[in-house]
Specification:
About 45% of the residues lie in helices and about 10% in strands. The protein is of the alpha/beta class. The strands form 4 sheets. An 8-stranded parallel barrel has the order 5-6-7-8-10-12-13-14. Strand 3 and strand 4 form a beta hairpin. Helix 5 runs parallel beside helix 6. The mean pLDDT is about 100. The structure holds D-xylulose and cobalt (II) ion.
Length: about 425
């Protein structure tokens, strides 16, 4: 059955194509820096925005026309959505998808019934994966939508909510394993606080640390070998979220002895909400050995919330790809479009335009980044900037041969440090612009 009859298989047609249902830059088999584009990106479509998004916002009702979805919380409707989703993945030519437990199956009257519903849909997902070769990039548990999580999940003041969340993650891990998921994500939208007067922060953080250890132990016991990822975000829906940015997450992981088991899933719009650029979050995580995967989207410069838009900006994707090429890529992570079409983009075909645009923007970003690297000027200027550390005093300091006493002696003898050179920011920006 064709749920998108107006949409053909999306193929690469090159930069001059005017076909709205074609890639202009994403050419899966094209090799860049020794790797195909397919392998560089490992593109993934999200189940939640793409197949559960309705266009509802705090001021208005659903807007989106989805002829296949009767809106009912039934298993039949959920099973049908799987068919729609796999037709979409196939036509788009993406190798991966990602979901929360509650995106794919309805909730029942009890946890046992909810788990049964999930098992039913997982069977269908598995059949479709096997038939199409499309794989699960990551699974996760939705620990934020149901009202039981108002005060948090692993950081709830209610111990039974902690227990419920544990049961839910246990099941989500089993399902992710069953579907061969390559990663498992924790995003703590309700793990934080609205007000410090009613919050025992130390206790909540301790509980979160315990919760993650339970997840690590359970994964080990069932043989789940995928990477655990924490997705930083500073706020929304909670005023302050504990996993506020990469640095906060990495500090938490080290403090609670979890650093060997987790990496980070970085999202562009979360980085900007934290007051950072995506490039900053990626560079910081990669430098700490914690770069796991990315949620590819963007915010709106004029809006201060998580608008989850599809990326269209070549500066952004070129910067992302510069970091990825430098650090050797993302696998087993991927580029996951945690992005949604605008409320006004109401037709199913808009889902294709959005993803085609995102994939092309990344492909172009990759080509720009590779060209900048092949040119070499940026790297040469960076190397030159730090050249005082390559020999003599700098090398001795890096090798641990100095202390404050020896350095004071040296500077007392010299009287002053060697003169500085220009940072050349504008020249570097001009060089980057030459490739955009
Ligand atoms: C919310 C967000 C989540 C996570 C998965 O801002 O990004 O959808 O990616 O829970
Ligand atoms: Co996300």
């Amino acid at each position: 059955m064709a749920y998108f009859p107006e949409v053909p298989q999306i193929e690469y047609e090159g930069p001059h194509s005017k076909n709205p249902f074609a890639f202009r830059w994403y050419n899966p088999n094209e090799v860049v820096e020794g790797k195909t584009m397919r392998d560089h990106f490992r593109f993934s479509v999200v189940y939640w925005h793409t197949f559960r998004g309705t266009g509802a916002d705090p001021f208005g009702s659903p807007t989106m026309l989805r002829p296949w979805d009767d809106g009912s919380p039934t298993l039949d409707n959920a099973r049908k959505r799987v068919e729609v989703a796999f037709e979409f993945f196939q036509k788009l030519g993406v190798p991966y998808y990602a979901f929360h437990d509650r995106d794919v199956a309805p909730e029942g009257a009890s946890l046992a019934e909810t788990n049964r519903f999930l098992d039913e849909v997982v069977k269908v997902l598995k059949e479709h994966q096997e038939k199409t070769g499309i794989k699960l990039l990551w699974g996760t548990a939705n620990l934020f939508s149901n009202p039981r999580f108002i005060h948090g999940a692993a950081t709830s003041c209610n111990a039974e909510v902690f227990a419920y969340a544990a049961a839910q993650v246990k099941k989500a891990l089993e399902v992710t394993l069953e579907l061969g998921g390559q990663n498992y994500v924790f995003w703590g939208g309700r793990e934080g606080y609205q007000n410090l007067y009613n919050t025992d922060m130390k206790r909540e953080l301790d509980h979160l640390g315990q919760f993650f250890h339970m997840a690590v132990n359970y994964a080990k016991s069932i043989g789940f070998k995928g990477t655990f990822l924490i997705e930083p975000k500073p706020k929304e829906p909670t005023k302050h979220q504990y996993d506020s940015d990469a640095a906060a997450c990495i500090n938490f992981l080290r403090s609670y002895d979890l650093i060997d088991y987790f990496k980070l899933n970085l999202e562009t719009n979360h980085a900007t909400l934290a007051g950072h650029s995506m490039m900053h979050e990626m560079e910081y995580s990669a430098a700490q050995g914690c770069l796991g995967s990315i949620d590819a989207n963007t915010g709106d410069e004029l809006l201060g919330w998580d608008t989850d838009q599809f990326p269209t900006n070549y500066y952004l994707t070129a910067q992302i790809m510069l970091v990825l090429l430098k650090y050797g890529g993302l696998a087993p992570g991927g580029v996951n479009f945690d992005a949604k079409v605008r409320r006004e983009s109401i037709e199913p075909s808009d889902l294709f335009h959005a993803h085609i645009g995102g994939m092309d923007t990344f492909a172009r970003g990759l080509k720009i980044a590779a060209a900048i690297r092949a040119d070499g000027r940026l790297k040469n200027m960076l190397d030159e900037r730090y050249s005082s550390w390559n020999s003599g005093l700098g090398q001795e300091i890096e090798r641990g041969k100095h202390d404050f006493v020896s350095l004071e002696k040296l500077m007392l003898e010299k009287g002053d440090a060697a003169p500085n050179k220009s940072g050349r920011q504008e020249l570097l920006e001009n060089i980057v612009n030459q490739f955009i």
